[in-house]
């Protein structure tokens, strides 16, 4: 086994770790269909009944029969897990009970849970938002799961399906869950048969079936969905096959799917090969790769010739290819190895002619190395036909590097001259070693071709100068012929091995250098705590790896790009902003704003784009596919580091805010409790003095009333503080009952009548107002706060309007005044604690009324907002709108009336 054939120990270790982790996890089986009605649930239940008959321990966690008689009959005898009741907006929903399933599974040996509709959204209040997250927790606990899903629920195909059918499905499953499933069973049904089931009422009830057949269930839609289902499943199977090939080290190409490989040289035919392969791939609708092999002969070519190959590879990527630039001693062997690693059965290569009788074309050499591969030859461009053999030979079979061959001859001559004085001191076998050493040196410096020439010249010079009779090619002893043969074979073998090892050593050194650079960069980024440190680490890596200048621009809270210190690249702000806004690369080396001196890469983090990285290559050097992938990896690491730092800051701020809020609430609660006792005593004393007011002089009686009013206002403020602290602590019990809204409004008006004495209140309640399920005391407190707020901030004599109406889902209460309105832009901020309309306002209050009102309304499942009423003269007052869920009151069965009659 050669060095190239030996498996990578790190990959083997990772594979073993993945296998061990998979053994601990449960197995996931997905019944996959093109649309509803194909029979996924029925097939899952049928398989479950068969498995149960074979002794498998299973339970139905949740199954949706949708009223289909056949499905219900199939599920009737299977054990079921009780569902969990979840209350949401006055409705009780039945959801899968994850905790009960885990508790059941812990008591079983090999548990299996059936859980229908993988893409389902769980009701608010459940542990996970999506059902597929419930499935992942079951799998992590070692529980096997069977489930169902449709193709339109796959995240990557969701937009495609919505564009075809015109219907957007909001319940989706990440492709990762589908790809990591242990088994996928395609439940298929021809469109005509599915439409027949739909008309027969086996999918939906008649009214729903009629609407479905006119919209989603059109035959064209079903055909497309069926094709997407089969293609997506085929892609998954193909990925599994490729993974198995890699694990089993299978070298033979299996032509299970058409795939093309464009072989890109440095000659004029490279671009034509790429375009021809792209057209062929489009006709066959298959994937394709483009590969340029960096051989020693190619590395000795002028920089312009090598850049041409990189430009052709970039063209291939733009046309949809996967590009690569492996390094190898010979192009044919590297191309065959790449084709087998990626299971590519057909190679597309430019046609070459032999410049020398003993030379073979690249296609012939590929055919000799791999008889199972198809080779398609592309004719050279018409204008470059005469130049093709020379150009292609330089890339594939090696244009004669005359300098290297001359060096080989001179090296052998110098060896002969240096060894001649040693003839009397050394045996001929040792002199042979000196010539072999010269062959090794030539092979290491100039490659295989000059080393072969050195081998032949060395044998000839050894015979001429050292073998008796000297200075002739005659051989006195026939044994020297064996020496010549062995010397030639050894020299040829050494030259071959030396050239190959040199290329492999260079490639390994380059890979090791890149991996070490990435490791050091990742290590430094993991310890970075400031964005400036991230920018400095990124610039240092790019300068060392690419000899390029770089600047990192991070986005602030307003999505404005700010250049971080330490950057030295000349960034075009327009290019950087374009790349940030669209999340795509721009500038040098791309098709967008290519005149820019910098390549701008968006820093895409898992949550959002965090900024851009501007890279200015040295001498505007063309970047190859491997270098571009390395740049993308660098940008990804920088983006993740910036996002990590951002969330560290967010977490620290949130922790400080939480602690500050907790301390403030504790302080308010303690102060409020301590103040209520002396305030109650002050109010009591003021009331006692008021009872004696007729006997007091007028000035003293006025002072007593002022003391009582001030004490009452202070008591009200302290009550608000205490209520706010209790609401945030969740210590206020909710006593929700079905109440007529008219009674709550009447109680609120009576409670705040003293504050509304100088302002008329116009009440307009709709005649069809339903009962609302509320805590009457708390809702009355909300209305009192809003009415008193209107009375505080409106002129005396201006009216206040209170209206209420109902819709199909909500009951809306509106309070309008004719005052100065709310501060522009601060309508939402007024609902925060201790926020007031004007900091310098002389109106008494601490800014808690609206905060208390919002907390109470939200506790009822409703919303409250403030806005300005506009008219011809500008703002004509403020408006507060309360929306409460309507709900369904209990039916009146007449029992009360009957009892009264009795």
UniProtKB/TrEMBL annotation:
Keyword terms: ATP-binding, Kinase, Membrane, Nucleotide-binding, Phosphoprotein, Transferase, Transmembrane, Transmembrane helix, Two-component regulatory system
Topology in membrane: Multi-pass membrane protein
Domain Histidine kinase: 670-888
Gene3D superfamilies the UniProt entry points to: 1.10.287.130, 3.30.450.40, Backbone structure of the membrane domain of e. Coli histidine kinase receptor kdpd (1.20.120.620), Histidine kinase-like ATPase, C-terminal domain (3.30.565.10), P-loop containing nucleotide triphosphate hydrolases (3.40.50.300)
The keyword DNA-binding is annotated on this UniProt entry: no
Subcellular location: Membrane
Enzyme Commission number: 2.7.13.3
A GO MF term: ATP binding
One GO cellular component term noted in the UniProt record for this chain: cytoplasm
Catalytic activity: ATP + protein L-histidine = ADP + protein N-phospho-L-histidine
This protein's record includes keyword Nucleotide-binding: yes
PROSITE patterns reported for this sequence: HIS_KIN
TM annotation in the entry: 422-444, 451-467, 479-501
PANTHER family for this protein: SENSOR PROTEIN KDPD
Function: Member of the two-component regulatory system KdpD/KdpE involved in the regulation of the kdp operon. KdpD may function as a membrane-associated protein kinase that phosphorylates KdpE in response to environmental signals.
Protein name per UniProt: histidine kinase
Protein species of origin: Piscinibacter koreensis
């Amino acid at each position: 086994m050669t060095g190239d054939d030996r498996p990578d120990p790190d990959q083997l270790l990772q594979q073993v770790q993945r296998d061990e982790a998979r053994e601990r996890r449960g197995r996931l089986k997905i019944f996959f269909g093109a649309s509803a009605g194909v029979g996924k649930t029925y097939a899952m239940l049928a398989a479950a009944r068969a498995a149960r008959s074979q002794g498998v321990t299973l339970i139905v966690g949740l199954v949706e029969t949708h009223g289909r008689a056949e499905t219900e009959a199939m599920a009737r005898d299977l054990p079921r897990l009780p569902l969990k009741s979840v209350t949401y907006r006055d409705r009780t929903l039945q959801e899968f009970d994850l905790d009960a399933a885990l508790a059941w599974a812990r008591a079983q040996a090999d548990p299996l849970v059936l859980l229908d509709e993988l893409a389902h959204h769980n009701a608010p209040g459940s542990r996970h938002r999506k059902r597929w997250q419930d499935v992942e927790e079951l799998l992590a606990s070692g529980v096997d799961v069977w489930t169902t899903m449709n193709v339109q629920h796959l995240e990557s195909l969701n937009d495609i399906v919505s564009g075809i059918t015109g219907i957007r499905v909001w319940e989706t499953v990440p492709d990762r869950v589908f790809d990591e499933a242990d088994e996928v069973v395609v439940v298929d049904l021809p469109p005509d048969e599915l439409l027949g089931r739909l008309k027969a009422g086996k999918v939906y009830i008649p009214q729903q079936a009629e609407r479905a057949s006119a919209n989603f269930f059109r035959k064209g839609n079903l055909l497309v969905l069926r094709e997407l289902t089969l293609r997506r499943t085929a892609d998954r199977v193909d990925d599994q096959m490729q993974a198995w090939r890699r694990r089993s080290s299978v070298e033979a190409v299996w032509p299970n799917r058409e795939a093309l490989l464009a072989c890109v040289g440095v000659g004029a035919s490279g671009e034509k090969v790429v375009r021809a392969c792209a057209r062929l791939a489009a006709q066959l609708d298959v994937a394709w790769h483009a590969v340029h092999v960096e051989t020693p002969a190619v590395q000795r070519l002028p920089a312009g010739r090598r850049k041409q190959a990189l430009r052709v590879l970039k063209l291939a990527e733009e046309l949809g290819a996967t590009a690569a630039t492996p390094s190898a001693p010979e192009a044919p062997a590297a191309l065959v190895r790449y084709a087998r690693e990626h299971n590519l059965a057909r190679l597309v290569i430019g046609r070459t002619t032999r410049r020398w009788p003993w030379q073979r074309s690249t296609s012939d050499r590929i055919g000799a190395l791999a008889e199972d591969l198809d080779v398609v030859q592309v004719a050279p461009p018409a204008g470059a036909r005469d130049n093709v053999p020379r150009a292609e030979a330089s890339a594939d079979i090696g244009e004669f590097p005359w300098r290297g061959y001359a060096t080989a001859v001179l090296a052998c001559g110098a060896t002969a001259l240096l060894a001649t004085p040693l003839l009397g001191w050394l045996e001929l076998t040792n002199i042979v070693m000196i010539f072999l050493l010269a062959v090794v040196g030539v092979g290491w410096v100039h490659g295989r071709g000059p080393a072969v020439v050195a081998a032949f010249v060395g044998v000839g010079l050894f015979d001429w100068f050292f073998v008796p009779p000297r200075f002739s090619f005659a051989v006195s002893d026939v044994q020297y012929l064996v020496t010549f043969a062995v010397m030639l074979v050894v020299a040829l073998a050494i030259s071959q091995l030396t050239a190959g090892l040199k290329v492999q050593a260079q490639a390994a050194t380059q890979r090791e250098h890149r991996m070490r650079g990435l490791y050091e960069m990742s290590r430094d980024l993991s310890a970075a705590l400031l964005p400036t440190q991230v920018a400095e680490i990124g610039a240092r890596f790019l300068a060392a790896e690419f000899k390029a200048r770089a600047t990192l621009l991070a986005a602030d809270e307003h999505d404005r790009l700010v250049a971080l210190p330490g950057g030295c690249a000349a960034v075009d702000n327009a290019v950087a902003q374009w790349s940030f806004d669209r999340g795509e690369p721009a500038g040098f080396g791309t098709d967008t704003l290519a005149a820019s001196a910098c390549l701008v890469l968006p820093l895409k983090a898992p949550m959002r784009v965090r900024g851009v990285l501007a890279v200015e290559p040295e001498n505007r050097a063309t970047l190859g596919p491997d270098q571009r992938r390395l740049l993308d990896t660098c940008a990804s690491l920088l983006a993740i580091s910036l996002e990590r730092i951002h969330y560290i800051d967010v977490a620290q701020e949130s922790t400080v805010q939480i602690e500050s809020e907790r301390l403030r609430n504790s302080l308010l609660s303690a102060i409020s409790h301590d103040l209520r006792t002396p305030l109650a005593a002050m109010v009591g004393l003021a009331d006692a003095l008021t009872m004696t007011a007729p006997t007091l002089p007028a000035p003293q009686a006025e002072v007593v009333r002022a003391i009582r009013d001030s004490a009452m206002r202070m008591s009200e403020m302290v009550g608000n503080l205490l209520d706010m602290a209790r609401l945030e602590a969740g210590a206020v019990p909710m006593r929700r009952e079905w109440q007529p809204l008219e009674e709550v409004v009447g109680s609120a008006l009576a409670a705040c009548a003293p504050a509304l004495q100088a302002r008329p209140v116009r009440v307009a309640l709709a005649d069809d107002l339903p009962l609302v399920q509320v805590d009457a005391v708390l809702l009355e407190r909300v209305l009192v706060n809003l009415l008193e707020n209107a009375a505080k901030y409106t002129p005396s004599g201006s009216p206040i309007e209170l209206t209420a109406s109902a819709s199909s889902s909500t009951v809306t209460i509106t309070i309008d005044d004719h005052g100065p309105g709310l501060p522009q832009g601060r309508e939402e901020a007024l609902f925060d604690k201790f926020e007031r309309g004007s900091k310098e306002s002389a109106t008494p209050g601490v800014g808690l009324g609206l905060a208390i009102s919002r907390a109470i309304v939200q506790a009822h499942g409703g919303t409250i907002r403030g806005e300005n009423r506009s008219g011809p003269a500008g703002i004509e007052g403020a408006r507060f709108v309360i929306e409460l869920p309507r709900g369904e009151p209990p039916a009146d069965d007449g029992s009360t009336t009957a009892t009264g009659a009795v």
